[in-house]
Amino acid sequence: MDANKKMGELMAEMPGARRALFAKYHLGGCQSCAFDEGETLAELCKRAELDADQVLAHLLSSHEHDLAMLISPSDVAQRKDEVTFVDVRTREEFEAVKIDGAEFFTQELQEKIFRDKPSGLVVLYDHTGKYVLDQVAWFRGHGMPNTFGMKGGIDAWSQEVDSKVMRYRVEV
Fold first, then answer.
1. What does the pLDDT look like over 113-153, one tens digit per residue?
2. Are both 55 and 125 inside the same structural domain?
3. Residue 152: is it exposed, middle or buried by C-beta count within 10 angstroms (0-12/13-18/19+)?
4. Domain check: are 83 and 141 in the same one?
5. What is the reported pTM?
6. Distance between CA atoms of 9 and 68, rounded to whole angstroms?
7. How far apart, in Å, are the Cα atoms of 34 and each of 30, 45, 60, 137, 169?
8. Is 160 exposed, middle or buried (CB count within 10 Å of its CB: 0-12, 13-18, 19+)?
9. What mean pLDDT do residues 42-71 have?
10. pLDDT tens for residues 55-69?
11. 33: Cβ–Cβ under 8 A, 6 or more apart, which residues?
């Protein structure tokens, strides 16, 4: 990984990079600090008057932290009896296809989990694992260190664990 990587590629490889850039450098979170996906990290850093090597080191460190918050579908399957599944997709996606025993994420469910503090794993999942890290960080920040995001989301679960869970594509 180097600073000449395009931001779009960097965001695809490190899903939490936008959060990390905004939290430390106020880049990429709003219109005034936005970047183009075709722009390289080096170009962005030059424009923002930042040292590209330091920014890259921060992104790599943040990415390592993010990876520690993820769990593979096969690891979840091995511990399925001790897992509370929380589906953070849209209600429509949840109603169309879900993992057996999963609960749809609502404010009430969040309050129940925070209050009861399940002894096993709390595994959050979205469609492809791309957007679950923010919710995992939220849970962990509220005293739930046993919370993980499922790497690859329900799509990976379908491919690696339970082929009866229908795969789908979201049309935008």
1. 999 999 999 999 999 998 899 899 999 999 999 999 999 99
2. no
3. buried
4. yes
5. 0.81
6. 21
7. 6, 12, 20, 23, 28
8. middle
9. 94
10. 999 999 999 999 999
11. 22, 26, 27, 48
Q: What angle do CA 90, 92, 96 make, to 5 degrees?
A: 120
* Pair of tokens at residue 32: 């005034």
What DSSP line would sit under 93-121, residue for residue?
HHHH---TT-EE--HHHHHHHHHH--SSE
User: CA–CA separation, 40 vs 5, rounded Å?
Assistant: 5
Alpha-carbon distance of 39 to 43, in angstroms, equals 6
In the three-class reduction of DSSP (H, G, I as helix; E, B as strand; rest coil), residue 24 is classed as helix
- Decide the pairing of beta strands 70-71 and 83-87: unpaired
Sequence letter at residue 56 = L
Q: What is the pLDDT of residue 170?
A: 83
For residue 2, give the nearest of 64, 66, 45, 65 by alpha carbon.
Answer: 45
Eight-class DSSP state of 151: T
> What is the spatial distance between Cα 147 and Cα 150, in angstroms, rounded to a whole number?
10
What is the residue range of 33's domain?
Answer: 7-67
Does 76 share its domain with 20? no
